[in-house]
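Supplementary Methods S3. Input chains for the assembly prediction are listed below.
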Amino acid sequence: MNADTPRFLRACRREPVDRTPVWIMRQAGRYLPEYREIRREHTLLEICHTPELACEVALQPLRRFDLDAAILFSDLLVPAAALGVDFDIVENRGPVVKRPVRDQAGVAALTLSSDLKELDAVFETVRLLRRAIAVPLIGFAGAPFTVGSYLVEGGASRDFRECRLLMYREPGVFDDLMERLADLMCAFIERQAAAGVQAVQIFDSWAGILSPAEYRRHALRPTRRVLETVKTLGIPSIHFGTGTAGLLDLMAEAGGDVLGVDWRVRLGIVRQAFPERAIQGNLDPMALLAPPEMLDRMIDEVLADAGPSPGHIFNLGHGILPDTPIDGVHRMVRRVHERTQAAPSR
Amino acid sequence: MNADTPRFLRACRREPVDRTPVWIMRQAGRYLPEYREIRREHTLLEICHTPELACEVALQPLRRFDLDAAILFSDLLVPAAALGVDFDIVENRGPVVKRPVRDQAGVAALTLSSDLKELDAVFETVRLLRRAIAVPLIGFAGAPFTVGSYLVEGGASRDFRECRLLMYREPGVFDDLMERLADLMCAFIERQAAAGVQAVQIFDSWAGILSPAEYRRHALRPTRRVLETVKTLGIPSIHFGTGTAGLLDLMAEAGGDVLGVDWRVRLGIVRQAFPERAIQGNLDPMALLAPPEMLDRMIDEVLADAGPSPGHIFNLGHGILPDTPIDGVHRMVRRVHERTQAAPSR
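Predicted structure tokens for the full assembly:
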């Protein structure tokens, strides 16, 4: 890549950057008054399926902050519509799947639409966004396990009980579900790339509930298939999960140019264990609600932990919280850029 | 220790055993019909504060299964009564603290009763149990962070928001809370030991929510104080937490003869990293709801992961689930003993 390549994309490839790039998971979100304004009149799914609105909310944080990437505004379950899944997103509760998928018949009923026409609005959003922004656009897709966990549980879960039960009682059915979701995600990402995304983040947000043995048995292969598809598209992938300190080697085996981790995983250890990967993370989102001097300290700790080598993308360890003060976000973005600017060969 | 020392205590010291000892977190619990029978007439706190009842429920699993240890029946919040904390345990919800502790005044109001007379029933339970059982009796105490998280949140939490906020906004107040809880736990354990417990498990169940930096700043020192107190008492300690793959070196630094981990941490890695410790765990409690052949396979994987060296105590990775079938428990206890019996020098 040449010197004009945006620093976010350079960091994905572990090339030197003029300063550490920063973006924020869920940067288009409820902490922004202008986002809440739109949400007063539209549901989350309406926004996802209306390109002008989805484009607008993705642009909102870029107008306020000097962010180094935009991300497609979406929800983990959005693509499930192309498998015929009937769901809603309920305020303060998250996705609610009308008929949870808990047996062979339920899995067999998930048939991938051949043209993904249910998701046309998503691809149109990507095209609109690419025309509207100067920074790279990150595509959005859930890993098979995490999306599958919503389908099996019927929604958000604390203990992933139904999901683990299905995995232990009917591993073949569970694997069938995983493969169908991998098919969906591969097609979904291919179409996002064709529409213009320049990188993809694969959200395996809940993989951390799995034992390493179960991850290897049920999550690794379908996730690898998705990440290999991204590779064939020639764009970098970020492989993200929370609570993954015990799974990192397996997640790295599944793939990803960038390993994204939450605040419970030391970046320094990820660096050391996977020198051939870039890393993304990992400030505790709650730090943005701390007093300025504490926030500064925690930002600096993340930067110190990441170390001076190229290939760090600064981000939170999980999505930004709805009651995050805007001032904290300004402070964070500025500080990351300032503190990492000193080393020109960084 | 001589050859008559029970295998549980030998395993704590990494001495060879005739077979791997096994006990079950929450082994006196709702999966047992005879426990539910008692709970129909008594609340959990009534049982904790009535030595005959607390003794009876602790004995129940020993009558059914060939378990290698008993544990004091208690709840993480029970000792908080000696700090003047007003709380209740609500069915299907867990502890509810009447006035959550979220500021300096709240922490300052927590004054340790000089004689722990609020907990006399607990110590009497220990004395009764020791007379009633042949296997070793494990004492029960929460680590300062985990008990503190209930006091700050006011109950169980998914994101530990209030706890992290207090830590980031008023670290001095948070540390004051931790030290008071450490004082309490040291006194609580001393009295349990005087009454006859032969080991202690320190439950830092929710430490896994912390970043390594925060664990070091706020949890390590008070936890170490508790574990050092156990050491002076001459009994072994089990240091347990869930989701701790990223914290193990710090938890080991805090202490514990035995490191207890959940199913998301590979026992083999713990063995390798901390050869001087014994290990406890780590079957996914959900495995007991799996078909027999899957349960067997998962048990065998835990045993294989733990390896043949001495110093493994078989347990679940977290408390046994209320809807666990009794047959699965029988199967597990038998299988662990049978599979590890072959090697006499194990």
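The interface with chain B takes residues 158, 161, 164-165, 168-169, 171, 208-214, 243, 245-247, 263-266, 269, 284, 286-287, 289-291, 294, 298, 301 of chain A (CB under 8 Å). The first strand of chain A starts at residue 70 and ends at 71.
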